[in-house]
Structure formats: C-alpha cells, structure tokens
Design goal:
Blueprint lengths: L2 E6 L7 H15 L3 E5 L26 E3 L13 H13 L7 H22 L1 E7 L7 H18 L5 E5 L30 E5 L2 H10 L6 E3 L24 H4 L6 H5 L7 E5 L8 H11 L6 E5 L6 H13 L6 E5 L18 H7 L2 E4 L10 H8 L4 E4 L4 H4 L9 E2 L9 H12 L1 H19 L1 H11 L10 E7 L6 H9 L2 E2 L2 E2 L5 E7 L6 H11 L4 E6 L5 H17 L11 E5 L4 E2 L3 H11 L4 E7 L9 H21 L7 E5 H6 L7 E4 L2 E4 L3 H11 L4 E10 L3 H4 L2 H6 L4 E2 L2 E2 L9 H7 L11 H26 L7 H7 L1 H18 L7 H26 L12 H4 L6 H9 L6 H5 L7
Parallel strand pairs: 1-2, 1-4, 2-3, 4-5, 5-6, 6-7, 8-9, 8-11, 9-10, 11-12, 12-13, 14-17, 14-19, 17-18, 21-25
Antiparallel strand pairs: 15-16, 19-22, 20-25, 21-22, 23-24, 26-27
Protein name: Glycosyltransferase
Keywords: Transferase
GO molecular function, one term: glycosyltransferase activity
Length: 895
C-alpha cells in the first residue's frame, strides 16, 4: 500500500493546521494511501511536548490516520527542547547565535538520516509538510529539506512533497518580532527543488513569498477548503425542518446540549479555538454579558484548557465578574469538524456537533495573530452565521469576497462596541435573517472554498504509477467524440506487432477530456473496465482547445515516466499523439516504436491517408488529395516532415528539452483562444533545437473524410483554417443525423467538385504544402542542403542557390531563431516566390508530371519589374496589416 507521511510543525494534537492536513489527507486515503501523521512534538519547543509519547491524541483524529514520528530523535546528540529554544532566540529573533550554527548543521545531518530511515522503512510515496517554513526550528527544517533531496534522488521520484505554509513571518505575530525581521536571514527559505511543490493559502501570501524569494518556482495557491454540507439541524436552507431549531438539533448527537448543561432553547454562540491570550476569548465573554438583558445567550468554548492554565483561569474569573459564569461553557478539546463522529469516541463530541447546535460562530480574535481564520470557513460551510473581528487578513480571505457578517472594527476599541453588540443581537433575535445570511454565505463559500478546489490541484499531483515496461503513452484529446470514440479505442486496443498482438504492457492510452458534454467520458471508462489489460487514464483539461488538451496529456505522461526506477525506464520513452476522429492501422504503434528505437531521431512522423472507398464518386477531389499526399511522401522521406496531431511520436527527453507543447494565443472575435497549430509549432521547436525528425511510412493513420466533407467550401477557397493570418479551430463534425448520412465515415458521399473547384482546391493545397514541407525544413536546418539525397532532389545548382539565399535573408532579417510562427512564415513565403518555378520542376520530376506548374502569382506581383521582384516579394510577405500573403497561401493545411 502506498503511504503518505504528514508532518505538522504546530506540535498540537488539534489545530487549524492539523485540521487542514486531515482534509487534504482524505484525498490521499480515497486513492488507497495509508496515512501517517507526525504531530511535530519533536519539532516545536514552546508547546512543552518535546519527546512526549502519544497517549490519547489519536482519539481526536479519524481512525484512518496513524500517529507516527521519526524514530531515534531523542538520541541525536545535543538536540532537545532547550537547544531548539536557544536557536530560535539567538539565531532567529536576535539575528546572532553564530556559535550555534555548527551544532545546527550537525544535528540536522543526524536528523535527516533518521527521517530517511523512517520513510524507507514505511516505503513513503508522498510527503505533506504543514508550516515547515515558519522558523520555530530551523534545525529540523534544514534536516527535512535534506531528507527530501536524499530520498527523492534515491527513489527517483518526481514532486513527491507538498510543502504548505499556513503561517509565515509576516502573518504570524508580526508585532512581537518573534521570527526576526525581513529579509529573515536565519530562516530556512524555500528553495527550488525537483521534489517539492509549494502551496500558499492565498494570493497575498504567494506574492509576499515571491518578494522574499523572487526566483521560487512551483508555488501555487491552495486556499483552506471546507466540506460544504450543512450539519444536520444547523441552519439548513430557509424553511427546512430543524433549521435553527431545537428539534432539528436532536437529530445529531442530541445529547450535546444536555451533556454540557446548555438549555435547549438558549441561543448558542460557538467558539472553537486554542485557549491562549492571543485568541481574545475575553471579547466573547464581554459580548455574552452585553447581550444578557436581551436573551439567554450561552457561549461554548471548545479548546484545551490545559494549554495555558493561566489564561483559562483568567477567563473564568472574567465570566464570574461579569455575572455570566453559568452561561460560559469550557467544553475542552473537541474532535475536528472533518473528523466527524467517527473520531468522537464513546460519548465524545466533535466541532461538527457544536456547529449543529450553534446559532452563531464567533471569531473575535486579535488583529495580528491569525493568518486565515478556519473557524469562519467551517461556519460558512456548515451554514451557520458568524461574527468576527477585522483581523489582519480577514478582508483578503473573506471580506473582499463579499461574505456577510457582523464585523468588529478593532479601530473602534478593544472590546465589543454598542453598535457591534446591537448587530449581533439582531441576528440572535431574528431567525429569518440568520437563515438568509447563512444561506448566502454557504453558496458563496462553496464557490471559493469548496473541497473541489483542493481536489482539482491534488488530481494534478496524483499521477498514477506507470507500468515498468511501458514505452509509449498515446495521448488522445477528446471533445464530444462519443460517436467516434469506440472505433478509435478499438483500433488502439487492437495494435499488433510482427508476431501477433502487441504486448499491452508496452503502451498506455491517456484520454484527455476537454469538457465533453456527451457520453465521451462514460464510454472511455466503460472501455477501460472491459479491457483491463490496456492501461487507460482519463485526464480532465478545463481550458478549451486541442492544444491545451494535448499538452496536458503529454505532461501527464512525461511526469509519470520520469518517476519510474525500473530497468526499462532507462530506455527511450515516447509520447505519442493521436486524434479522436481518426483511426490507426494495426501496426501503427509497432512501426513507430521500431523506427524510433533503431534511429536517433527525436520525432517520428506517421503516414496519413484517406480510404479510397469514401471518394468513389468524387474522382476530381480524390485526384487533388492524392497529388498532395504523393508530394508529402517525397518530401517527408527527404526531410522527415513535421508532426501532425493525427499521429506522431516524440522522445520524452526532446519534449522536455524544448519545454513541451507551447500554448500560443490569438484573438478570435475579440477573445483570446489558443492557436490551432501547436503540433506543427512543436515540431519546429524540436528541429530548431538541433534534433532530427524521421518519417515512418509504415505507421499509418486513416483520416476521417469529414475533415473534407464538412469544410469543402472553405477547402475550395483556401479558408479551411481561417484567413488574414488567423488560424482558427473549426468544429467540422456533422451537426445532425442528415449531415451524418451525407458525409460521415462509411456513409453516402457528397457530390464531386466541378473542374474549376478542383483546380482551386489543388492550388490552395499545393501553395500550402510547398513553403511548409519543401522550403521550411532547409530554412530551419540549412545543413540539409549538403545531404546527397536532398541535393539530388533539388539539383546541385538550386540547392547551392537556396543555401546562399537563406543566409542572405537570415542576415537581412536579423533573425537568429526561425521557430516563432511569423518568423518562419515570412522567409518561407519569400523563398517560395523566388524559387517556385524551379521547385515545381523538381516536384514534377520526382512526384509526377501531373503536379503541374506553380499557381498564378498574386496580381500585385505580376507587373513588378523582374529586377525588383525579390524586393516586392519581401513587401508582400511582410505586409502585417492586410494578411494578404496568408490568404494567398491558404493559411493552413487543406488535405
């Protein structure tokens, strides 16, 4: 069983930090992890729990959490509570203590070894660090970082650590100077690590962290999250039985009020917190006293009365002096809200029970102590109205998002003012107002702090293990492909090698769902269940666009392959792109794997074809398509071609080398959308990085004829993919059953093209093909013009003049990198115009006489004096305003 190791630097059995760990750990448990938690007793000195054995702490937590700790820390020479206190005081607070640093390093080394030993013994897979940057114990933080690096390298892991900071120096007790002053020279600052992903609770914390450590990478915002299901009887939707009523309260732990001597009809304010001076529980007691003449209001304080006995005694005396001792209940520690009844052993109770019986939840904390305010979030999630002070981060976390509550302004005084008391009294006495406020906050809270927020981020991190023998991940972006998907998956499942069915352990399928609204995902999951020998992963991608989906799938596969330590993981690993509306031949994957393994190329490009039976009544269209494909076969064999999303493979190393798929955005109807040519641009990046591309003609993909059938008008006019330099995504799927009957795969065919239409379609196709597939390869890699086969194709004279002209244009344009899309288009277009006649002559000689001659020039170039032709070609191709050159060349592939 996989293991999650959690460590809380809070050193208490129950706190906001521990509660957040429970919430996050639940996601791991649901995925089959065994959860261990180190409460940090051997970390923090001021809690008087150093080396203290666990006793009843487990009773406060869900049964599935195993309390654990690193063995042997009490045997580390010089490491004890006094040493940690001395380091905090002298090194962190005073900025001195240099004489202690050698001892810090020695102890950290020994602790690091023991941490790794513990993780090795338990076979830990993930680590969740809570509050590790807060410099309570820089020795332990140093040790933990060292252990992460050692263990990560040894196990060949990816980012197996989530490092979440709930409090930082600028958030937690900044007025006391407890943690020194900026730039916090003794604090162990976050560092970039291939094994750690950092989490901040809100954007302000992330921003300040980056001000402190500007080059920090992999830091995300994950707000504290809450389970937004109202506690039974605790302020359900208006009008529901039991909302804010005593009968409803009986439905959950009906003995709660009776057990604590609280009258069933008494309004109850809940305060669940640590009982320490900084929490300012005295404000709640004063509030109860001020409300006494209006209602029999009771206050329930849930917290460990033994943590600060002096503060507890002070609060009891205060309640007595104000005449409300009988209305203030110190209920001791309750199991956290997320633990629920399962953790409340015997007659115990949880925060969930308290909220089920509360009319209001209070958070009248000090201004500069709390960083987030979990009690507010718990109340919102449980549909209980709350009241609060405007503490330092209240507006950042809750107030600016529009939550409604009585807010005590600390600029007005240290204790509740009359206006604040009046606003609370109004809520206490008006059940309808409580219901409306609670319901509004609940809906808003679910949007901002719902458990799905954490689930979405954690889903990215839960990369399922990859098989030890897996060599290829087939990435399949899908959007509403329910009709085609079964056939596509069948073709992937039916892959064969030279001796029979292809070993399923060699490949997997990563299906990336791009917001499908039909049965696509259900079909995929059903297929996976019916074919357990083929690993099939369904991964969501919320940003619409095939480029985003392809990138998500390839990143998902790349990261998982890097985590393997099996012998086969040392061999080349391939990311393979497929298309949900195309079908692959049964030898598709084997041919790709064999060609890539036997060569040195970074990308393998497949062969694409249309099935002739779909064009039996359309000979003119078929002829135009076949001429294009014959030209492509010749140039792909020479240059390797460029990848098309319908089918190509890339080595993981090359993918990572160029930074993966790049998402480029363009404007469409006033909105930014991701560019359609991510596959093409990716191939250019790889070739531009010095890597080779190989053509694998035996790896064949059948193109769905709907790509032509339902865009035929645009094909004929050269606008199939947009115009004016804008390449747009067009959904070319039939919209109705009639459309499917007219043009779907294997159905009746639309009519053939007229001779004029066929000529125009061919001209746009060959104009698109020639600059991209004949000129662009040598523009990006001029050394290809020294290759014997390339020289034979062009002829020695044309090859030499092309090379010279490329050098001249490169120098003239001052371009050192032709990989950006508009950097390569302009020179490719210019070279086409200058050499079109000669290039077409070579195509006729190698492909066939029916290739013909170049299409007519644009009218504006026909009357240009020959001696100035190249000059005006430059102006035409670089006309950034009109997009005429893009329109002339068809602005994208046709067939």
């Amino acid at each position: 069983m996989t293991v999650l190791w959690g460590i809380s630097f809070d050193a208490t059995p129950i706190s906001g930090v521990v509660v957040e760990f429970v919430k996050t750990a639940r996601h791991f448990r649901e995925r089959g992890y065994r959860v261990h938690l180190d409460l940090g007793y051997d970390v923090k000195a001021d809690k008087n729990a150093f080396f203290k054995p666990y006793s009843d702490e487990a009773a406060l937590l869900p049964h599935w959490i195993r309390l654990d700790r690193v063995a042997g820390l009490d045997q580390v020479p010089g490491y004890d509570q006094d040493f940690v206190s001395d380091v905090l005081r002298e090194c962190v607070q005073d900025g001195a203590g240099a004489h202690l640093l050698p001892r810090v390093e020695a102890a950290a080394e020994a602790i690091s070894e023991r941490i790794v030993e513990t993780w090795e013994r338990l076979d830990v897979s993930y680590v969740l660090v809570e509050n590790g940057t807060l410099p309570e114990n820089i020795t332990y933080t140093t040790a933990l970082r060292s252990a992460v690096e050692r263990y990560g390298r040894r196990r060949r892991l990816g980012r197996f650590v989530l490092w979440r900071d709930h409090d930082l120096m600028w958030q937690s007790e900044p007025g006391t100077g407890k943690y020194g002053t900026f730039p916090y020279p003794r604090t162990v600052a976050p560092v970039n690590s291939p094994y750690i992903r950092y989490l901040a609770l809100h954007e302000e914390a992330r921003t300040k962290t980056l001000e402190w450590v500007p080059d920090l990478e992999n830091i995300d915002v994950l707000p504290n999250t809450f389970t937004h299901a109202p506690t039974v009887g605790a302020g359900g939707p208006p009008g529901t039985p039991g909302a804010f009523s005593a009968p409803g309260r009986e439905q959950q732990h009906g003995s709660f009020r009776r057990d604590f001597g609280i009258p069933e009809d008494a309004p109850l304010i809940a305060r669940f917190t640590r009982i320490i001076p900084q929490k300012r529980i005295d404000r709640d007691i004063h509030l109860v006293a001020r409300l006494a003449d209006r209602a029999d209001v009771h206050l329930f304080v849930a917290g460990d009365t033994g943590e600060s006995p002096e503060e507890h005694s002070r609060l009891v005396r205060l309640a007595e002096s104000l005449g409300v001792r009988d209305r203030v209940v110190f209920g001791g520690r309750l199991a956290p809200h997320e633990a629920g009844a399962a953790a409340a052993r015997g007659d115990g109770h949880s925060v969930r029970d308290l909220l089920a019986h509360a009319d209001l939840a209070s958070f009248l904390t000090s201004y500069d102590y709390e960083s987030y305010g979990n009690p507010i979030g718990e109340a919102i999630a449980s549909r209980v109205p709350y009241l609060t002070t405007r503490y330092q981060l209240y507006d950042t976390v809750y107030g600016d998002k529009g939550f409604r509550a009585p807010v005590m302004e600390l600029t007005d005084g240290d204790l509740p003012t009359q206006s604040f008391v009046d606003s609370v009294a109004e809520l206490i006495l008006d059940e309808r107002k409580r219901e409306e406020m609670a319901d509004f906050n609940h809906r808003l809270g679910e949007r901002h702090f719902g458990a799905d927020r954490a689930g979405e981020l954690l889903t990215e991190l839960f990369l399922p293990p990859m098989g030890e023998r897996t060599r290829m991940s087939v990435v399949l972006p899908v959007y509403n492909e329910a009709e085609n998907l079964p056939a596509v998956l069948d073709s992937l499942n039916g892959q064969r090698g030279p001796d029979g069915p292809l070993d399923k352990s060699l490949y997997e399928v990563v299906l990336v769902d791009n917001n499908s609204t039909d049965e696509t995902v259900r079909i995929a999951r059903r297929f996976a269940a019916e074919h357990p020998d083929l690993a099939l992963h369904v991964v969501p991608e919320p940003e619409q666009g095939v480029a985003c989906a392809r990138k998500t799938g390839m990143d998902f596969a790349s990261q998982r392959s890097e985590r393997r330590s099996a012998p086969d993981a040392e061999r080349r690993f391939y990311l393979v792109s497929a298309d949900a509306d195309c079908r692959v031949d049964e030898g598709w994957l084997w041919e790709l794997l064999n060609a890539m393994d036997s060569g040195k190329a970074a990308i393998g490009v497949c062969d694409y074809y249309y099935a002739p039976e779909h064009f039996t009544t359309r000979p003119r269209l078929w002829d135009a398509i076949q001429r294009t494909l014959r030209c492509r076969a010749v140039t792909f064999a020479l240059f390797g071609g460029f990848p098309d999303g319908k089918g190509f493979a890339v080595t993981r190393d090359a993918y990572e080398k160029v930074g993966g798929i790049e998402i480029f955005y363009q404007l469409q109807n006033g909105r930014f959308v991701n560019h359609l040519s991510d596959d093409w641009d990716f191939g250019i990046l790889v070739r531009g990085s010095g890597e080779d591309i190989t053509y694998v003609p035996g790896s064949r993909v059948e193109i769905n004829p709907r790509r032509v059938n339902h865009a035929i008008d645009e094909v004929i006019t050269g606008r199939a993919y947009g115009s004016d330099g804008i390449i747009v995504m067009r959904d070319i799927r039939p919209e109705s059953s009639e459309d499917r009957e007219e043009g779907g795969q294997g159905t009746a065919e639309p009519p053939d093209l007229t001779p004029e239409e066929a000529l125009q379609a061919w001209e746009f196709s060959v104009k698109d093909f020639t600059p991209k597939n004949t000129i662009l390869p040598v523009l990006l890699t001029p050394s290809l013009l020294d290759d014997d086969a390339v020289v034979e194709f062009f002829g020695p004279s044309l090859a030499e003049r092309l090379g010279r002209r490329i050098a001249e244009i490169t120098d003239e344009m001052r371009v050192v990198d032709f990989t950006p899309i508009h950097s390569y288009k302009t020179p490719s277009y210019r070279l086409y115009f200058e050499f079109a006649d000669e290039i077409f002559a070579r195509l006729r000689a190698t492909v066939g006489e029916d290739i013909g001659h170049p299409p007519p020039l644009p009218e504006c170039l026909r009357d240009v004096p020959p001696e100035r032709f190249a000059e005006f070609v430059k102006y035409y191709c670089e006309d950034r305003e009109s997009g005429e050159a893009h329109n002339y060349f068809g602005n994208g592939g046709v067939f």
